[in-house]
C-alpha cells in the first residue's frame, strides 16, 4: 500500500513548467516589468507547494510503515504502532507515546462532500432543513479514516519480525533547497528593483 496527496502529480508537472516559464519571461521581459522579482516569487511558492503537498508519501509493507513528510521521514515497524487515527488527518501513535502524522493522507474530499450535502439539502436555494443534512461525518469516509482501518488490520496481522527501532531522519535535501529558494527569492527582491 502506498499513497501520496491527490495534488502530487499535478504539482510535479505544473511546478517545473511554471518556474521555467517565469524564467523565460524574466530573461526577455523589459526591466520595468520586474519579472525577476516575479520569477523569485513564483519559484518560492511553487517549491514550497511541491515540498508540502507532492513530496509527502506513505508506504506500507508486510513489516513497516514509511512516512515521508516534508521535513522528516519515519520508518516504523508495525508492532511499534499502538494506535492509528483517521478522520481529518492520519496519525500514528507509537508505543512510546510519540505521534506521527502523515501529510500524504488527509481528510481529502471532506469539504467537497459537505458542500455537496449542503447543496442537495438546500434543494435549489432553500435553507438547509436540518444540520444533519449537511453534516460532514454523515455518509462517506475520509481517505484518512479508510487508511486507518486498513492499517489497523495490517498491524494486527503483522508477523513477529515487524519489530525493531523506529528510525527518523531529517530530509536535509528538502530543507536545504527550501532555504536556497527562499534566499534566492530575497536576492531577487533586493537586487532587481
Your description of this structure?
With 193 residues, this protein is an alpha+beta fold. It folds into three domains: 1-55 and 171-193, no CATH class; 60-104 and 144-168, OB fold (Dihydrolipoamide Acetyltransferase, E2P) (Beta Barrel); 108-141, no CATH class. Helices cover 46% and strands 21% of the residues. A hairpin with a 3-residue loop joins β2 (57-60) and β3 (64-68). The chain is elongated and about 65 Å long. The mean pLDDT is 84.
Q: Which secondary structure elements does this structure contain, and how are they paired or packed?
A:
Blueprint: E1 2-4, H1 8-28, H2 35-54, E2 57-60, E3 64-68, E4 72-77, E5 81-85, E6 89-94, E7 99-106, H3 110-122, H4 143-156, E8 167-170, H5 172-191
Helix pairs in contact: 1-2, 2-5
What's this model, at a glance?
The protein has 193 residues and is α+β, with helices and mostly antiparallel strands.
